[in-house]
Fold these 3 entries.
Entry 1:
Amino acid sequence: MLVYPSGVDVSSSTLRFLTARLRTSRRERGTRWRRLTCGRQALLTLAHLRCGHTYAQLATGFGVSVATAYRYIAEAVQALAALAPTLEQALQTAATKAYVILDGTLLPIDRIAVDRPFYSGKHKKHGMNVQVVTDPFGRLLWASPALPGAVHDIRAAREHGILDALASAGIPCWADKGYQGAGGTVRVPFRGRWVNLSAGQRAVNVAHARIRAVGEQAMATLKSRRLLRKLRCSTTRITALVQAVLALHLASSDRG
């Protein structure tokens, strides 16, 4: 395999943050020696999350075995995922906002046609359903555990307890037509063909769409990590990867 120098468009502050977290983790474990330093392990993990490079590519570039690269990345991902806020913690932050935006996204995975539970009829592809809560400015507040792509948004929101939590906290929420029947504080647009809606209903739907459009920035935040654009790992690892990306995003936002 040929090796060439490559750049990773990640800030040095993000690298320092993950390095400090790994250093703490090693201290707690009582680790004496590792093939890579905390800084190199952090860079290895960020390259994997940001660029989606395979373990074989990363192992060659960092001078370690494929098994070592896998183990180091898995360790760092778990350390980051542990920092991601729970839904209750996220809603405490959301309570200080005027409202939140709820939306779902499909993270594509490499599955074959027989894997029906992972096939999304809406997107016509296999993937994992992730629910996202953002603030009025489109900043990511919380991301849910991943469910099979065949699960609809309204069902996923109910399974994660998002709807009940929003209602209990009294937080207004804007969502799309996929959440029809959610009730509580969730507001959805009017259903029906555009030509069949009244002028007032059309105006409400236009205003609703403008509010919701801001939430797409959160989806862009997730998809900016090339690894999440096409996942080729076990579906059991996807939740930890999403939580790790969320923790990195929130840490960089706090520093900003």
Entry 2:
Amino acid sequence: MTTQALILAAGRGERMRPLTDLTPKPLLPVQGKPLIAWHLESLARAGVKEVVINTAWLEDQFPAALGDGSAWGLRIRYSHEGALFGGALETAGGIATALPLLQDAPFWLVAGDVFMPGFDFPTADAQRFAASAALAHIYLVPNPPHNPKGDFGISSAGLALSQADEKFTYSTVGLYRPALFKNTPVGQKAALAPLLREAMQSGLVSATLYSGPWTDVGTPERLAELNIPR
């Protein structure tokens, strides 16, 4: 069982202004609770015990809002990129910098600004990944209007493809091995996509197409749509 996770929560959320001028995007309320709390609840139900959250923008608000994780039966620790390095380090840079807070073992990764209430961080998927030689297993979703061309494809054998006739959108959720980031410097900005594409060329990234509800909460309009009473 994969019992650790990293939630990415360092971004400024420029497209969400003015909402994010005073509140980090993952702490904005969705249906009565902070957006990031939906992930914390799902991770706890999946048996995850250790969660690291990387932060930069308004980062003092995260410990104030989430505490040590005991409210969810978790232990939360924070990788404060703002205090230590002056700002967000992009995805791979943030992961590499947070790795010392994780065990040298597979971990779940998810962005704190996506909403996918039906995703249960499947234990069976984590077990298959742990038994494989893959460096990452990523979850793709049908392309939303804001990303019509998609990001990656899926082969008939379930491998992620950097080039494909049909591409889907990376959900931000995946299972990762620390080894993928062995050459990524701590404390420096680095993007995730190039690392994934390089590993895909060697057949070391698998993928699943997830068809459940998924929203990249990237604009005030998308947030408002999620909060319409139903």
Entry 3:
Amino acid sequence: MTLTEMAAGMDGLAPSCGRTRLIAVDGHAGAGKTTLARHLAAALGGSPVVHTDDLATHEQPFDWTGRLATQVLGPLGAGRGAVHEVYDWHARRFAGEQTVDAAPCVVLEGVGTGRAALRPHLALVLWLEVGPAEARRRGLRRDGPELTPFWTGWTAAEDAHFAADPTRPYADLLVHQDQEGGYRFTPGPAPRAAQHPNPADRYGR
């Protein structure tokens, strides 16, 4: 299934957060989640994208669930637009705001967006199929050697997070990227399909 085909099937999913279908794009740091989220949002007609890097901090790289719940999930769940803080990674403080419309689909992008605490609010969990070693090579190539110490600390925190609260076993769809930059979607493990039909079934296995 292509990105266009996957996006076209979103109308068949029930809203998961108020009137909004919240789509999680998860995977290892450096895997290409931000790029995938941008392409997905465009395929959905310009859906808003929430980046969890805007809600995380140096001291709390993964402890952003409370801010997301209060500033984004709460308003969307009530059918209203949301406004969330934006963290400045250079100034090391929250220094801006981002508006999120209560659109039919909102893309939630970042490491850990498919975590257990969020899955009840998600219409779809996507996992980008890039292994941790390759993802980190990409991330270091993107950020440069001067950020190697940051990546060392991040890697340890990410490994601990996924060991305690993995996403891939709960993904509805696995996302594969080809050498030309295109995407292919295949059915994921998605144990919650026992309670909610696997969205991949709409497209055939």
